[in-house]
Amino acid sequence: MSELDSTVRLTTAQAIVRWMVNQYTLIEGEEVRVFGGGFGIFGHGNVPCLGGPLYDHREELPLYRGQNEQSMGFAAAGYAKYHLRRRMMFCTASAGPGTANLLTASALAHANRLPMLMLCGDTFLTRLPDPVLQQLENFNDPTFGVNDAFKPVTRYWDRICHPAQILQSLPNALGTMLDPVDCGPAFIGLPQDVQGWAYDYPHIFFEKRVHRIRRQSVDEQELEQVTQQLLAAKRPVLIAGGGVQYSGAVETLTAFAEKHNIPVVETIAGRANLVNEHPLNIGPLGVTGSNSANAIAKQADVIFAVGTRLQDFTTGSWTAFAKSAQLVSLNVGRHDAMKHGSVHMVGDAKLGLEALSKKLGQHQVADSWVKNAQQERGQWNDYVSENVAYGGNKPNSYAQAIGVVNALMGERDRVVAAAGGLPAEVTANWKTLSPGTVDVEFGFSCMGYEISGAWGARIAQSETEAEQDTVVFIGDGSYLMLNSDVYSAVLSQKKLIICVLDNGGFAVINKLQNNTGNESFNNLIADCPTVPTPVSVNFEQHAASMGAVAETVQNPDELAEAFKRAKARDETSVIVMQVDPYEGWTAEGHTWWEVGTPQVSEHDSINKAHDDWESARVEQRQGV
Predict the structure, then answer these.
(1) Is residue 516 part of a domain?
(2) Other C-beta atoms lying within 10 Å of the C-beta of residue 390
(3) What is the band of 4 on the pLDDT scale with cuts at 50, 70, 90?
C-alpha cells in the first residue's frame, strides 16, 4: 500500500486537532506553528469529543481557559494582531449561548481583518434527540440555528455534516485566514454527533505543511498610472495604514518617504508605522487625529493611501481632503484600493512601494512642502506637550495619564486601548517609541476588548519579547463591561499593567450628547434617572479580588510612581485613577465626523447643533 493510500481511523474531532498541530508558517525564515494554541470553555457541545484530543495535544496546542467566550475571541484577535496575522489562535465554545457569545468577537475580527478559527458545538445532525438543550428552534427551517448567525461576520463558514468534509473545509478555512485579502475569522460548526463519528483519513492529510503568505505584485499598467499621479503632484501626502505592518513594509515605507521626500500621516490602525521623532512623521489623521496631519491633508493635491481601508474616522467622513485632491491608493484588496474613484494599484504594500520607488527614480517633492508640514507638526508637538502636562489647578485627564505612562514605557512595550474616549486620546497624544507597538482597536470600536485583547497580545509577546510589557488603558465603562481576563492574566501568569481611568460612566458619549445639543442623560452614573443614589465602584478591591496587585492613585505624580512599581514586578497590576468627565479632553486635532442629528426638534440647542453640524457638509466628497 502506498503512502497516498494509507489511512488512520480517527473521529472528526481527533482529526481536526491532529491537523492543526501539523500546520506551520514561515516567520522571518523560521518555521513555527500557525496555531499558537487556543482559548476554550467546555460544555456539552464540545467537551466529550473535542476535549479529549485537545488534552492529548496540550503541549503543542496550549489551551487557555477563558472566563467568557466573547473575551476569548477578543484575546484571539489581540494575539493575531501582535503576530501581524502570521499566527493565530482557535476558540472553542459549546453549543448555544457559549457559541453565541463569540458573535461580537467575530465581528471585531472581521472588521479588523484578523484571523481566528472558531470550533463551535452544534445540534445533532441526526436530529433524533431534538430539541436538545440550548437549541433555538426555527419552526420553518430546522437547518437554521444560532450558528448561522455567524455567516455575516466571518470570512469562511462551514458546518461539518460528515467526517470527510474536514479534508476540504480545514485547508480552505486556513487558506482564507492566511490570505492577505480575505483574511478574517473562520467558523466551523461541529454537530455533537459528527464530532465523535470516525472515518479512515489519509495519512498524508496530517503531514507537516508549511504555509507561505502570498505576496501579490502590482499590475504594470496600474503602476504606471500611479507613478504619473505622483510625478505630477506638488503637494502629496502619504497615508500609512495598518496594512503596511501586515505586509512587513514599515521599513520599505519609511525608505520610500525618505527617498522621495513625502510627508507621512497615520491612520489609527497604522498609528505605529513611524516613530514619533521621524522628521517625515506629520502625525495621526482624521477625527481623532492631529492639527498637523489634518492641515496638510487638506492642502494636499494628491492623497496616496497605502494599506488602509479609509474608514470614516480616517477621512473625517470624507471631509479631510480637498474635493479637488486626487486620491491614489495601494492596497492588496481591490475593494479597498478602488474606494472613492481612486487611481489605484492592487498588490502587496512592500512589493508595490518597491516597484513604485523604482519607477519614480530620484524624483523628490519640493522641500518647501515638507517644511510646511514639519512646521505644522512642530506646532502640534507643542500642543501635545501642553495637553499632557499636569499640576496647578488642572483636573486629572486621560491625556495626562497617557503622557505619564508614555514617558515610562520601554521601547518595545505595547499599549492597548479600545472604544470610549481613550482611543482618541491615545491616538492624538501617544509618542511612538518603536514600530508596531500600538494597538488601538477602532475597526469595530468595541468596548471590552482592552483587557482581553491585551491578554492575547501578552501571550503572543511572551513568545518573542518576554521582557517587555503590555499596558492597557481602559475606562470604567469598558472595565465594567468585561473585566474577567484580569483573572485570566493572573491565572496564566501573563503579566499586564492595566490603567483604569474612572470618569463616572460613559463620559465620551456624554460629551457627544452635549455637543449635539442634548442634555446629559443615562451616560454618566450621576445623570441616570433610574439611579436614586449613585454608588462608586471600588475598582482596586475588585481587581485585587481576582489576584491582581491593585492600587488607587490620586494624581499623575502618584500614577508615575505606581507605574514604576508595576513595571518592576512580575505580577499583573491594576492602577486606578479618577479623571474629570468634563474637563481635560483633547480639544484640537479633530476633523468633522458625520453623526446623525435630528432635522427638527423642540429644543433650540438641538436645532442649533444640527445646523452647525450640517454646515461642514459642503466639504464632503461624494464618493468620487
Answers:
(1) no
(2) 19
(3) low
Give the mean pLDDT of 162-180.
98
Residue 528 domain-assigned? no
User: pLDDT tens-digit profile of 127-138?
Assistant: 999 899 888 888
Residues near 166 by beta carbon (within 8 Å), at least 6 away in sequence: 12, 15, 16, 19, 160
Amino acid at 453: G
Residue 418 — left, alpha, or beta (φ > 0 → left; ψ -120 to 50 → alpha)?
Answer: beta
User: pLDDT (tens digit, 9 = 90+) per residue, 508-517?
Assistant: 999 999 999 9
Q: What CATH number corresponds to the domain at position 409?
A: 3.40.50.970
> Do 111 and 248 reside in the same domain of the chain?
no
Q: Are residues 281 and 316 in the same domain?
A: yes
- Which residues is 69 bridged to in the sheet? none
pLDDT surpassing 90 at residue 323: yes
Spatial distance between the Cα atoms of 65 and 37, rounded to a whole number of angstroms: 11
Q: Which grid coordinates are listed for 494?
A: 501573563
For residue 595, give the 3-state DSSP assignment.
coil
- Which of 211, 237, 258 is at the close of a domain? 211
In sequence order, the β-bridge partners of residue 265 are: 239
Range in 85-89, 134-138, 209-213 with the lowest mean pLDDT: 134-138
Residues 407-448: pLDDT tens digits? Answer: 999 999 999 999 899 999 999 999 999 999 999 999 999 999
Whether residues 224 and 202 fall in one domain: no
Look at residues 355, 379, 403 and tell me which one is the last residue of a structural domain: 379
Res 301 pLDDT > 80: yes
pLDDT for the residue numbered 383 = 98
Residues 557-582 have pLDDT tens digits of 999 999 999 999 999 999 999 999 99
196 and 281 assigned to the same domain: no
Separation between Cα atoms, residue 306 and residue 314, nearest integer Å: 13
Q: Which domain holds residue 274?
A: 220-379
- Structural domain tally of the chain? 3
Q: Which helix (H) or strand (E) holds 35?
A: strand 35-40
Question: Does residue 507 form part of some domain?
Answer: no
Separation between Cα atoms, residue 536 and residue 133, nearest integer Å: 39
Paired with 64 in beta bridges are 39
Strand partners, 240: 266, 306
List CB contacts of 255: < 8 A, sequence separation 6 or more: 357
DSSP-H helix ranges across 389-464? 398-408, 422-429, 449-464
Compute the 3-state secondary structure of the chain and give helix, strand, coil in percent, each to the nearest 5.
Answer: 40, 20, 40
Nearest to 314 by CA among 294, 328, 336, 300: 294
> DSSP code of 564?
H
Peptide bond into 180 cis (omega under 30): no
Percent of the chain scoring above 70 in pLDDT: 99
| 525 lies in some domain | no
